[in-house]
Write a structure and sequence with these properties.
about 270 residues; alpha/beta; eight-stranded mixed β-sheet; binds S-adenosylmethionine; EC 2.1.1.-; SAM-dependent_MTases_sf
C-alpha cells in the first residue's frame, strides 16, 4: 500500500471508522483496508450506504435548525473526514460570523480537515482529541481561541456515540459538555439503533465491523433519550433518522426505515 508522506506513522492496514464512512459516502479519503471492510459490510447489508447518506443529511438539517435558533458556534465531536455538507460550509454559508471547531481522534480525519479549513482558520479550527475527555477538548487552545462560552454553542455528536460503550460513561462526559455551555446552546445526536429485525445479514455485518474497526454499541430509543438528560428535545423528539424533519419532496418520509435514531435539543 502506498503510504502518503503526511500519513507517516499511521497504520493504514487497519480500517478506521472515519475512512470506512467516507467510502460509504462516496468520498476519496480511504485506503484499501477501509474499502475492503466497507465492501464486506455492503455484501451483507446493502443499506449501509443509505444509512451513511441519511445520517449526513440529518447533520445538515440539524445544523440549520440550530442556526435558525440563533446558534452561531459549533463543536463537532467525531467530525470525521470532510465531505459533502460540512458543518463549516453550512454555518459560514448562513452567517460569516460563524465559528466551528472540528474534533476527531483519527489522525487522517484531522489531517484532511486541517488542510480543508486552512483558508478559513480565523473562524474554523481542528482539534485531535478523544471526545470522552471533555476537559482536553474544551481546554484545547484552538477551542478557546474560537469558541466564546458566554454565547450559545452547538454540540454535535453525530454517528459517534455508538463507538462509546456504557463502561465509558457517555452520560458522564455529556454532562460536562452540557455544563460548559450557556442556555440557548444545542445538542445534536445521531446514533445507531437496533434494526426492526435483527436478521442474520445484520448480525453478520455487525460482526464484520466489530472484528475490524471500532466495536459498535447499539442503543434503544430510551437509552438515546437518556443521553439528552438536562436538555429540551426539539420536535419531533428522538426519532428514526429519516423521520427528523424530512425535506419536502425527498421521499424520506415513506422510505424503508434505517436503524438510526436522532434528536436535536436546546438548553433552557
Ligand atoms: C461515522 S464517522 C461520523 C462523521 C460525522 N460526524 C458524520 O456524522 O457525518 C465517526 C467519526 O467519529 C470518530 N470517533 C470515534 N470515536 C471517537 C472518539 N472517542 N473521540 C473522537 N472521535 C471519535 C471517528 O474517527 C470518525 O471520524
Amino acid at each position: 500500500m502506498d503510504q502518503p508522506p503526511w500519513a507517516e506513522g499511521i497504520d493504514l492496514s487497519r480500517p478506521s471508522p472515519a475512512r470506512v464512512y467516507d467510502y460509504l459516502l462516496g468520498g476519496g479519503h480511504n485506503f484499501a483496508s477501509d474499502r475492503a471492510l466497507a465492501e464486506r459490510m455492503l455484501a451483507t447489508e446493502p443499506d449501509a450506504r443509505r444509512w451513511a447518506a441519511a445520517n449526513r443529511g440529518f447533520l445538515g438539517r440539524a445544523v440549520e435548525a440550530l442556526l435558525d435558533a440563533g446558534v452561531r458556534q459549533f463543536i463537532d465531536l467525531g467530525a470525521g473526514i470532510p465531505t459533502v455538507g460540512n458543518v463549516h460550509d453550512i454555518a459560514l454559508g448562513a452567517t460569516s460570523d460563524a465559528r466551528v471547531v472540528y474534533v476527531d481522534v483519527d489522525q487522517v480525519a484531522v489531517t484532511h480537515s486541517r488542510h480543508l479549513v486552512a483558508d478559513v482558520s480565523d473562524r474554523v479550527g481542528v482539534v485531535q482529541a478523544d471526545l470522552r475527555a471533555p476537559a482536553a477538548v474544551l481546554g484545547d487552545p484552538v477551542t478557546r481561541r474560537l469558541i466564546d462560552f458566554d454565547r450559545p454553542v452547538g454540540v454535535l455528536m453525530v454517528a459517534v456515540l455508538h463507538f462509546v460503550p456504557d463502561a465509558d460513561d457517555p452520560c458522564g462526559f455529556l454532562a460536562a459538555y452540557r455544563d460548559a455551555v450557556p442556555s440557548g446552546s444545542g445538542l445534536v445526536i445521531s446514533h445507531m439503533s437496533y434494526p426492526a429485525k435483527m436478521t442474520d445479514e445484520v448480525k453478520e455485518t455487525v460482526k464484520t465491523y466489530n472484528s475490524s474497526a471500532a466495536p459498535l454499541t447499539f442503543r434503544t430509543r430510551a437509552e438515546v433519550e437518556a443521553l439528552f438528560a438536562g436538555w429540551w428535545l426539539m420536535d419531533p423528539g428522538v426519532v428514526p433518522v429519516l423521520q427528523w424533519r424530512p425535506p419536502a419532496g425527498s421521499g424520506d418520509a415513506g422510505a424503508p426505515e434505517i436503524p438510526g435514531l436522532v434528536g436535536v435539543a436546546t438548553k433552557a
